[in-house]
Amino acid sequence: MDEGGLLGGKFLFKKLPDGLLDKTRVICTICKAEFKYHRSSSSLAYHLRAKHPTESTSTGPRQSTLQEYGACGRITKNVREKVTNSLVVWIAKNCRPVSIVEDDGLREVIRAASGDVCYNLPSRGTIVSRLHTLYGDQRAQQSSKLVQVRNVALTGDHWTSVNNDNYLGVMAHFIDNDWTMQSFALTVSKTEERHYAEACADHFLNVANEWKIKDKVTTLGTDSARNMVAAARLLPFEHMPCMAHILQRTVTVSLNDSAFERALAKCRKIVGHFKHSPANAQELKAQQAAHGHQTEPLVQDVPTRWNSTLEMIKRIQRNKFGLTTILTQQNSKVTMLTDQELDRLQKLEELLEPCRYVTELLGGERYVSCSMVLPALCHLFRIMEPSDDDPVYVLRFKKIFTTDLAQRRDSSNLTWLKIATALDPRFKDLKCLSKDERREVWASVHDLLMSETDAHQPSAQTTEEPSPKKSKMSICLLGSPDSDTEEEEDAIDCCLNLYKAEPKIDIGECPLQWWLKREGAHARLAPIARKYLSTPATTVPCERLFSLSARYRPYTLLPGRCIGGCPLLHWVNGLNAEELFPYGD
């Protein structure tokens, strides 16, 4: 029996014929309905709420049910949309698999954060559909950028995955109307044909046609592989060999059969000794802590990993005392480098450090790099000049290095590089070239200005009425037909002289900002500068696509054979969900 007397007198025990009360039966005093009673008034309270809501009374405080609690904290439809859009952007920007929306832990985190214990994650189909929409919207935005520019440079490379699948990556580079360097991925697509020159050329041409920029493409940057060089010859674009590949290839050639090989071979054995044994690696960490050094593993050099030889040398030099102690205590067959070998490695480090600096300098995609190639190579040639203090093995390395680099430099697109250097206000004095080459460069720029002028002159209309005959006197007064050409020549010379007279800016300043401020003063030269300065010096930005592609899961593929997520990651970088999904507040 409840404390209120069967819900405040709304129910009474059934009276038996003999006058006693039946404690197992109760009767509703309102509708005379009879109920079984088992010492609980829950069913009686339900009857009051259902049949007599006006007569129902509160039975006191009770714990809310799960459904009632969820109904109080349910998130709105707009908030749910924002959560879904944020999940889509998170998956696109951080290379998460689509199946993550089936993760119970993620669901519980969102439930706890939102207070909605009934929230369920969107389905995989919803996420894939939103990814398709996001990809289409972002692709349209990138296409609109390409429509607004006159010239576009491409970089491309082929890559083979760990699953032995072939992929083609292509990036576009251009300088927009605000003189800002723009770079983004066009595609990372799977290819099934062999990488013959004709197939490679067709792939690049298909990408250009797909994005409708074939007539705007100026240069195609690739590595120096024979099939890529041959493919570039088949295309109507200027070829720009990757200068980082050229430089690293020169380093490799210079180290072959050099006096450094023996010391480098011992370095590789030492690194392998600590790489392949967790116990040895732990001993190295203890020695590093004892000497007050930063805890760091040794690095093995890999022929295809740029600057890895230099990094291997640096880490062995920094940890030479700890390595000597460990190898001595272990009485290992792997011996530590001698003082003479360490001295040789120190000299090699001094030779390779400028190469690392130049490689990283030319590998950027957010700043002008093409115009820095010739000054950077000139810097390397000066460093590699023989000195009286150089030992014989260093002199031999320098000779092989400069000879090989000079040959590769001459086989690159020197004409394009020279013009780009002249149009960069940091290097327009062309100190990296001889006087004869400087004159040839300015003559080439003069010809480009003439071509630019001819291209913008209106063509004569054949439907025009014939002009009236001029008298001999008027012909004499107007002068010869060549006078217009001479005036144009003078105007172009004046334009060039005005640019040459501008003071050279500091090497740390941005050439694009200089052109932004002086575009009006050099209106004829500005389009040419925008065209030549937009070409990257290397294909490093394009190769970074493959490290992203390797992290992507197969089920994040977008329509066709294109790894849409990889270009999409480039496109959405730095944007939030509100910017990418502006609809729905």
UniProtKB/TrEMBL annotation:
Residues 456-465 have a biased composition (Polar residues). Residues 453-474 are annotated as: Disordered. It is found in: Nucleus. GO terms for cellular component: nucleus. GO terms for molecular function: DNA binding; protein dimerization activity; zinc ion binding. The keyword Iron does not apply. Residues 496-549 form the HAT C-terminal dimerisation domain. Keywords: DNA-binding, Metal-binding, Nucleus, Transcription, Transcription regulation, Zinc, Zinc-finger. The keyword Nucleotide-binding does not apply. Its main location: nucleus. Coiled coil: none annotated. Residues 13-53 form the BED-type domain. This is BED-type domain-containing protein. It comes from Maylandia zebra.
